[in-house]
Write a structure and sequence with these properties.
Structural class: mainly alpha
Shape: globular
Oligomer: single chain
Length: 258
């Protein structure tokens, strides 16, 4: 049997290389030509030559000359930082809130020593942190003396500030803001805080208490009028300003004594 192997012995011949069935299908080394058959010919057609696979990748007909491990230089260029994102040069939080401890210190010294000269910038600063603290201290000392007058303090403070605001706008040529009036009247409440502290230790209804209360009202009104004159440049009108200020602080003195 071995001598007749390969002859026509009734089995199907396996010569597939020579039997193409009439189809022109040349073998190509790239499997990507499968989708590029030319079906315009009869039968299966012939595949077009391998085009474009050995060329470098291009985007918009511009060849890519870089390296994936070497990025472009422009990607590392630091972008300019705008003022909104410059966190290192931002002002402190207290300065953004309008709280200046230097001006608070100068105003407090100006109230405690009315004869001392004060800078106009510090006086014109409409700081409300100091007046709020002094009002809270005034109410706290009255509370220690057994008097709960927080509502009266804020109510009389608002009414007195609006009255002084109207009066000062009528008297001055430049005008004044509400916050400036509240700031000055609030800072000059500091001597009244000292009086309410004395009310914890002693009774102010006697002769000594009356004299001490009168001196405190004069102290507060003189300091407030001096600050208003310095802020609004109203030289020669300090006495006219001191009188309504004395009326405002006299009401607070009544709360302290009685």
């Amino acid at each position: 049997m071995s001598g007749n192997f390969g002859q026509d012995d009734g089995f199907f011949q396996g010569d597939y290389g020579n039997q193409q069935g009439g189809y022109d299908m040349p073998y190509t080394q790239s499997g990507n030509d499968f989708g590029n058959f030319d079906y315009s010919q009869g039968g299966m057609g012939t595949a077009p030559p391998n085009q474009g696979f050995n060329q470098p990748f291009s985007a918009g007909n511009v060849p890519y000359t870089g390296n994936i491990l070497t990025p472009e230089h422009n990607s590392f260029v630091q972008q300019p930082i705008s003022d909104e994102d410059d966190y290192e040069n931002e002002p402190p939080l207290l300065e953004e809130l309008g709280i200046n401890f230097d001006h608070i210190y100068q105003k407090t010294l100006a109230v405690l020593n009315p004869l001392k000269a004060t800078e106009q910038d510090a006086v014109a600063d409409s700081d409300l942190a100091g007046p709020l603290v002094f009002c809270m201290m005034f109410g706290a000392t009255l509370l220690l003396a057994g008097k709960i007058h927080f509502g009266y303090i804020y109510g009389l403070g608002v009414v007195g500030s609006l009255g002084m605001y109207t009066l000062l706008n009528l008297m001055s040529l430049t005008g004044v803001s509400v916050t400036c009036v509240i700031s000055v009247l609030g800072y000059c409440l500091l001597p009244m805080v000292l009086l309410s502290t004395a009310a914890i230790l002693t009774v102010l209804t006697g002769l000594v208490g009356t004299v001490l209360t009168g001196l405190t009202v004069v102290w507060c009104s003189f300091s407030a009028s001096k600050l208003f004159v310095s802020a609004l440049q109203m030289e020669g009108q300090q006495v006219l300003i001191a009188y309504p200020c004395a009326l405002v602080y006299a009401v607070f003195a009544l709360l302290t004594v009685f």
